[in-house]
Write a structure and sequence with these properties.
This protein is an alpha/beta fold. The protein is built from twelve helices and 20 strands. It folds into three domains: 2-131, Nucleotidyltransferase, domain 5; 139-252 and 461-470, no CATH class; 257-451, von Willebrand factor, type A domain (Rossmann fold, 3-Layer(aba) Sandwich), CATH 3.40.50.410. The protein has helices spanning 6-19, 57-60, 67-78, 96-108, 122-131, 239-244, 269-288, 327-336, 350-360, 399-410, 428-432, 445-451, and strands at 2-3, 24-29, 33-41, 47-56, 87-91, 113-116, 139-146, 153-161, 170-177, 183-188, 199-205, 210-220, 223-225, 233-234, 257-264, 296-303, 319-325, 369-376, 412-418, 436-439. A six-stranded mixed sheet has the order 1-6-5-2-3-4, sandwiched between helices.
């Protein structure tokens, strides 16, 4: 029998935890009785232990069996006879029962390693050794890349931790997030074709579109953390469902966009609040899609009704609450708007809003989307009085010409939310809502932002993307379909 202090036993047992193939049996014999522990590994090579048996000496002999016979029977049931499955017996006390139990174990497994150590509790020591064990299999981050021959997407592994990596090790990997909703960080211990059982973990990371350098930390076998990503949440969808959403080709990156919200302030308090509600809802929806300042700017303009019947022409201008601000600034600008009393019932100064926006819009990069969302009840004034008897705009602004000009020069898309259904197909609301037209009590905001081109409707790439240029030989573990 080998005599070990606790430190020596810890090192010897740690070696067995690292090196066993199928299973490891550890038997604890002390003054109270006998306990048998078994250590195995799961599908991804993570070791775990279970207590297979625990019995006090009086319990073993309660049926009339001797300790030797009882332990031999238990060993035959619970301890593998295969010599490749190591067995360690830790004796923590001396006595007749302990000696009989040891003889039975040696008869069943003559190759068992027997050590004597006092003050050891295997129920506490084994979990510590398992947590501190190095990796048996390499861990990769599952990413998508474009195949060189046809540009179609395939799954590959980017190496995070190699076999033998120890808890506390860290690694860095550069990926690109292509979905405004974030990205899935799937860690795999694959060694061949990827199977769901090879997954170590799958977490959703709320990252913004664009490149990111991630730091991964091996906390213990089976647990990888990304400590610098706040809001990481486990994703519980079946892996087959995740793979099924993988598009054949890389979806386009979100286009930079400028959203102009034009809100009529004239009307009752409820009408005003309903209009502001939908403007705020759309802004919040875009925030949820994580279109950051580099991808989205928002302007908020409040407008009322013209005043007629006075000696001088009405020269009031729309209230520019914020121009090209962030979503947070746009939210604050909405709060600054105040309801106004309507001074004319049949039209509003919408044409003045279009003139103001047209004057302020600057040439944008070719891929920038400009979107106008008008929310109100009254149509714009015409540039001159017509058969409908609506007075002309005091400044003679031509709302339709202004709208067409912005569509041509700034690739403008326009949507509208109106208080009540337009009176006819010739109503200006149909033109102002050419991309999307909703009533205030029946708005589909998700569809609205898609029609405005602010959010893509194509299949999103939920997994990280890597370019062929950034996959080195050491990091690329090969394509998986």
């Amino acid at each position: 029998m080998n005599h070990f202090a606790e430190g020596g036993l810890r090192g010897d047992l740690a070696d067995l935890v690292v090196s066993f193939r199928e299973r490891l049996a550890v038997v604890e014999i002390d003054a109270a009785g006998i306990r048998i522990f078994e250590v195995r590994v799961d599908e991804v090579g993570t070791p775990f232990h279970t207590r297979r048996a625990s019995a006090k000496w009086p319990t073993l002999t309660a049926s009339g069996d001797e300790v030797f016979d009882a332990v031999l029977r238990i060993a035959g049931d619970l301890i593998s006879a295969d010599e490749e499955d190591p067995v360690m017996v830790v004796c923590c006390a001396d006595g007749h029962e302990q000696e009989a139990a040891l003889r039975a174990l040696r008869q069943w497994r003559p190759s068992a390693q027997v050590v004597e150590a006092s003050g050891v509790k295997l129920g506490e020591l084994l979990p510590e050794l398992i947590v501190a064990a190095p990796l048996r299999h390499a861990y990769d981050l599952i990413v998508a890349r474009e195949r060189a021959d046809d540009g179609r997407l395939e799954l590959v592994g980017r190496r995070l931790f190699g076999s033998g990596a120890k808890p506390g090790d860290d690694a860095h990997v550069t990926i690109t997030c292509t979905d405004a909703g974030g990205v899935l960080l799937a860690v795999s211990a694959w060694s061949g074709l990827l199977q769901p059982s090879d997954l170590v973990s799958v977490d959703h990371a709320p990252l913004s579109p664009g490149p990111h350098r991630l730091r991964a930390v091996l906390e213990r076998p089976g647990v990888v953390r990304f400590p610098e990503i706040p809001g990481l949440q486990p994703d519980t969808r079946p892996w087959t469902e995740v793979v099924a959403t993988l598009p054949a080709l890389l979806p386009p990156m979100p286009r930079p966009a400028h959203l102009v919200c034009a809100i009529e302030t004239a009307g009752t308090l409820k009408e005003f609040e309903d209009r502001c509600h939908w403007a705020g809802y759309v802004i919040d929806l875009l925030t949820e899609h994580r279109l950051g300042p580099q991808h989205l700017q928002v302007s908020v303009v409040g407008y009322g009704t013209h005043v007629f019947g006075t000696r001088h022409a009405d020269r009031t201008r729309p209230a520019l609450a914020v121009w090209s601000g962030s979503t947070a600034q746009a939210r604050a600008a909405l709060e600054s708007l105040q309801p106004t009393a309507p001074t004319y019932p049949n039209a509003a100064q919408l044409e003045d809003v279009l003139a103001e926006v047209s004057d302020r819009l600057l040439p944008q990069p070719g891929n920038t989307r400009t979107a106008l969302l008008t929310i109100g009840a009254r149509p714009p004034h015409p540039p001159r009085s017509g058969l409908d008897r609506v007075p002309a705009c005091p400044a003679r602004h031509d709302w339709l010409a202004l709208l067409r000009d912005m569509e041509q020069r700034h690739d403008l898309r326009s949507a509208a939310i109106c208080d009540s259904p337009p009176a006819s197909r010739s109503s200006p609301w149909h033109r102002l809502g050419s991309a999307a037209l909703f009533q205030v009590d029946a708005v589909n905001a998700e569809e609205l932002v898609i029609r405005l081109g602010l959010v893509g409707s194509s299949a999103a790439l939920s997994l990280p993307f890597v370019s062929q240029n950034f996959v080195s030989q050491n990091e690329d573990i090969g394509g998986r379909h």
